[in-house]
């Protein structure tokens, strides 16, 4: 279940890419399949161990192109252990809403992106997220849960400002290149969960809707066409995730 559009990101075979806040690795795996040299970064050692195992399995089965490399790194998003301009492309999917010092994390993403490189950041979209917060305090008060709700204007402002030098030297800001939305089918699912209790997975409506999402993810032939068309129609209206795309200016 991918959130980021890698064609829109401009990902090319052989490029060095960072999946910051990789979690279970969904974006890292797809970038590896496309022939990129991938670094999956997270603070959860257990999840990273599982990601490394699947990287190895992909290499053994030939699922990743010959020559592509993939590795993991555990650490802090506020102090990325990478050199300035090390990555051609960066993905930060559904992570900033969890970080208290989000501006500092954004500054680190900009720092390790090469001039001319691109960055995709996804966060929960404002309207679906507001509804979740209104329906249930448990949705966002859980340990490690969401601590803020972004508007597109706020996040664009934070990213573009993070690209400007703060020492008085000349320099250009990050360039905003557009946005998209994803997972329109998931918003109603979470509204139902928040309405009946976020931990009430046995509720009939929750179970029924979850089955629809499983059909969509697993691409069951009977249902995949219908669910994909429904998702495409819903994404612009109630897509649960907002994805913003940025480019770092080339060095003159």
TrEMBL record:
For this UniProt record, the keywords arranged alphabetically read as follows: Methyltransferase, Transferase
Q: Where on the tree of life does the source sit, at the highest rank?
A: Bacteria
Per the record, the GO terms for biological process are:
methylation
Domain Methyltransferase type, residue spans: 18-121
Q: Please list the coiled coil stretches.
A: none
Which GO-annotated molecular functions does the record name?
S-adenosylmethionine-dependent methyltransferase activity
Entry keyword Transferase: yes
Name one matching Pfam family: Methyltransf_11
The family database entries (PANTHER family) matched by this protein are listed as: GERANYL DIPHOSPHATE 2-C-METHYLTRANSFERASE, ZGC:194242
Spell out the protein name for this chain.
SAM-dependent methyltransferase
In its UniProt entry, the species of origin is given as Nocardioides daedukensis
Lineage of the source organism?
Answer: Bacteria, Bacillati, Actinomycetota, Actinomycetes, Propionibacteriales
